[in-house]
Amino acid sequence: MHKDTTDLPTGNAPPAASPQPRRARLREAAFTEIKAIARRRLVEQGAEGVSLRAIAREMGMTAPALYRYFASLNDLLLSLQADFFAELSAWITDANTGVPEEDVDGRLLASLRAFRSWALANRAEFALLFGPRPPHQPSGPHEEAALREGQRFASTFLTLFNRLLEEDRIPLPDSGSFTPELCRQLEQFARSAGIAGRHSEGELRVLTACWVRLYGLVCMEVFHNMVFGPDDMEPLFEAELADLLASVGVRYRPPEG
Amino acid sequence: MHKDTTDLPTGNAPPAASPQPRRARLREAAFTEIKAIARRRLVEQGAEGVSLRAIAREMGMTAPALYRYFASLNDLLLSLQADFFAELSAWITDANTGVPEEDVDGRLLASLRAFRSWALANRAEFALLFGPRPPHQPSGPHEEAALREGQRFASTFLTLFNRLLEEDRIPLPDSGSFTPELCRQLEQFARSAGIAGRHSEGELRVLTACWVRLYGLVCMEVFHNMVFGPDDMEPLFEAELADLLASVGVRYRPPEG
DNA sequence: ATGCCGGAGTTAACGGTGTTTGCTAACATT
DNA sequence: AATGTTAGCAAACACCGTTAACTCCGGCAT
Q1: B60 and B89 part of one domain
Q2: Statement to judge: residues B128 and B189 lie in one domain
Q3: Residue B204 is part of which domain span?
Q4: CA-CA 20 to 30 A from B20: which of A120, B35, B170, B228?
Q5: How far is B44 from chain A (nearest CA, A)?
Q6: Is residue B133's beta carbon less than 7 angstroms from any atom in nucleic acid strand C?
Q7: From start to end of B62-119, where are the E strands?
Q8: Average pLDDT in chain B
Q9: Residue among A76, A81, A94 nearest A125 (CA)
Q10: Which nucleotide is nearest to B67 (CA to C1')?
Q11: Tell me: the pLDDT tens digits for A130-143?
Q12: Which of B136, B64, B130, B80 is nearest to A49 (CA)?
């Protein structure tokens, strides 16, 4: 590498005049164009189809130029991960607009369905976020961004249950029966999700259980391994959703559409 | 391709003398050596580390020679998938030796734990079987073998519940409340798992629910995405296992070890 | 206005990959 | 012994990630 000048885009571009940003704007535009093309190729051809040379070719450039923007191919993928996590978070919170603040059940239903709908509408992106990771590739500066957005997603997702927990409607398991190892794992989970110290062990236990079930349900549908053909399995999702919600004291409602 | 002579190994080698098999034995040996090296590389370096050139180099051959055995790299991976499915099936049934035939609870517990233990001991293999698939790679003659073994695994897995169902201990959901779409999906699931026509809709509903939960639990642990550090999450698995088993009327028992 | 510096982009190169084509040489069969 | 089959080879094509050295031009300070 020439220098270590793969600066990250600021994200919050100051609305200054034109003197400085001229250069910066072009750089920002290049960033977004690279990522847009990378995403399209990811969707069309899977993770293997994302190659620096192909992206550069499509932009009318040569591959080494991209190293001005990303430290490596893996770094680009990490940057995409960060974007996807942010998009998923926004998608879920957006699904709650229109649902009244007091309708806790409705908000939870909408959020869980939104998670699934985003995953189905963005299968390749979902696979990149939640699929198996190859062992420790040469990472880059965007690794922490991906981690940060991932944590932010986990946090916003789990916060959905806060109102529910406050209302004491969830039948909490007897935390006295938890093994010490389980408690330690639950604490670690809370830490990695950015909600450390805010919940009791019983609450964490319920949160993880819900998350695991939702994750499994959606993974099975998105990766569509060994089960069900190409057509969607919404009925099973809804049925499982009802069962899952019953375990947290939320009464199921069928989707509106 | 020169010809279409990528014959599959017979598997059941006839114990004939030496005239014919001389050639066939060498071929069989080459097959297994290729797959052994491929698996080692898969484990050590992930799916990306499996390359025909590297395998050939390691065998003291050149890459094109491997096309005498596999139609493509993807075909080799499919062949590995078939082997892994068979190994996983055997691993699960082996876990039941030593558990008396009448101890239905014990057999189920042992089987579910065996699924997890195989996945943890063979993370890369598990990811190949149950991880996301890239869209329609150029497949090969081993595709149907992989599919067949996958079905066989699904069948053996779901058959575990047969005794349980016969004893009518599982509280079945009211199948009258199922939507027609759900019933259709359940039938399709049974068909793709090779157990079509053998169970009622209520039973299929319970089977899929169990499978989805186990799948999600193990996927989350193996792909270790966004949750938990490197250390194992057995306590959570056992806790979820207890909860899952309770839903099918099986009383939980802690592992022996 | 001049000079300079740094960033964006280039070409060339190294080593790696899947895959195809045509060939040789050993084997099996007749 | 002549035949046909088959495993393996070398060469080639088209890709890939990554590095190094170089050019060029815009923005900045003198």
Answers
A1: no
A2: yes
A3: 76-246
A4: B35
A5: 9
A6: no
A7: none
A8: 90
A9: A81
A10: C19
A11: 999 877 778 889 99
A12: B136
